[in-house]
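User: Fold this; tokens only.

Assistant: Input:
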Amino acid sequence: MSAPSNPITAHLPPTGKPLVTSRQLTLALVVLLALAWGFLPEFTVSVLSNIGLYALVAAGLVMLTGVGGMTSFGQAAFVGVGSYATAWICTSPAAAAWLGGFVAPALLPWAGLLLGLVLTFALAWALGAVTLKLQGHYLPLCTIAWGLSLYYLFGNMDFLGGQTGITGVPPLVIAGFSLATPRALGVVIWAVLLLALWALHNLLDSREGRAIRALKGGRLMAESMGVNTARHRVKLFVLAALLAAVSGWLYAHLQRFVNPTPFNLNIGIELLFMAVVGGAGHLWGAVLGAALITLLKEKLQDVLPSLLGSSGNFEVIVFGLLMLFVLQRFAEGLWPTLARIAGRWVRPHATTGAARPAVPTVQLAQRNLPAKGEVLLQATSVSKRFGGLVANNDISMTLKAGEIHALIGPNGAGKSTFFNMISGVDDPSAGEVRLAGQTMTAKPSRVFAALGLGRTFQHVRLLGQRSVVENVALGAHLRAKRGWLAAMLRLDRAEEAALMAEARRQIERCGLGAHADTPAASLSLGQQRVVEIARALAGQPSVLLLDEPAAGLRHLEKRALSVLLGQLRAEGLGILVVEHDMEFVMNLADRITVLEFGTVIATGTPAEVQANPRVLEAYLGGADDELLEDAR
């Protein structure tokens, strides 16, 4: 992309008005809300407080559903856990007697918050460990089941007041100041919401955030980058549940009573609608969706009875029809559309992934490459059966440091199956795979990645809407250690700068420096394959598995790829290439293994393979003899 001719006018929209950044606009709106808060009518303050409570839960659902790809209809139940925990501690004589010697009455709500968070953490972790193993429609159905179970549990436990609930919940007191009114507590609600959005934004703009985004695109790719997807899914589920519990705690002290009604399945569905309608992949979409649906319900409840001349739940019907319209016309939610419209006047605030980071001040984990000729990857008598079908039969192969080994064969020869077994995607039915001297039986892909194996995929697997540099930085996931809390508090910035610097170095090395900040989906297929190679190199592997890397590349791009792979071989990497382009393979590989019907029919140098009559007859055929001669 060429630089603009005038760097001053380049930052002005067609109207000539100066642009502001999204962060500046956000700060301006927050200041405006703070200044107007004391002058707003009581009803408006109550509505805004409810919007803040709903948005807090919806933000967790944006992370869980929109970013992580897991649908939950049961978040209202976690709101109930936070509400009932504080209501019980603050009103139960037994709890008061037990805590009386340790906690002053004014601090009981804070003990309720602690209890609610502990209970929610334990419950969400237990439910997540069980239900998040499910795929497809089974997961949302399971969230409906336990959401209903918790709702009925709230209404059938006598010490929680049954269907009547718990009354007399005291107000929050901070530094001796009572927050007994919605106007006072609403400030806390919105402060908590804004802090949560800030922390979640920081989390997404980090190493762990990239791992979270990778969950939705497919666990295979994330695991191959070293991400423990099962643990990340549970942690994300717990995070969304904790946000719901905090919302429930604030709700209990805003309403001053708790009963089961606000925590039923209908509310859980509404909360999910808020996240989806606002924009399931955008944190501020949670606020937009919460505001839209809350205001819409308020207006419909006032307008419909006067129009229809009778009372009833007509707003539910209209509400449902309007939601169908919004979801059909705005599949990604309303926030992306609003952002596009505002793009004439508001430019995105530069983030770590979108702007060149500062010079890193920390050193990423380094791997010492083995000596040239050392065996890095070894498959011994490996077989794979799917029922009565034998996909691979007694295959043995080694990959040494400082060599390029090609695996070729016609379609259906079993190359992809073998590739999956030596990268941890599948376990062999018989035989053994060893990596760096270790037996890898029954070990997941992330363990292969931790031992120095990087790979690309036959069908490109990238985060299409994220920039190239963010995709490549995901490959270096195991070279950094900072966790979720550090990311939320921005304590990982030095490490993040080092990751981004490494990602840009690999992008430049692979010849895509001009596209570093371009969304990966906008690149050609050949360029996306090169991005996958750069991503694998960011992990500093000793073993590199490339699945059809030359597919989709033009002649000059293939030549550049060949030069790059030659450099990597000289550095000591062991490279295994699965490829159909015979000219590319014959001019590049040191050794070649040929498969036919899942069995090795030839192994040797390119010259030996080209001279093998069985290879010529079974794979290359007479039609390709001329191509082989050209490759020589």
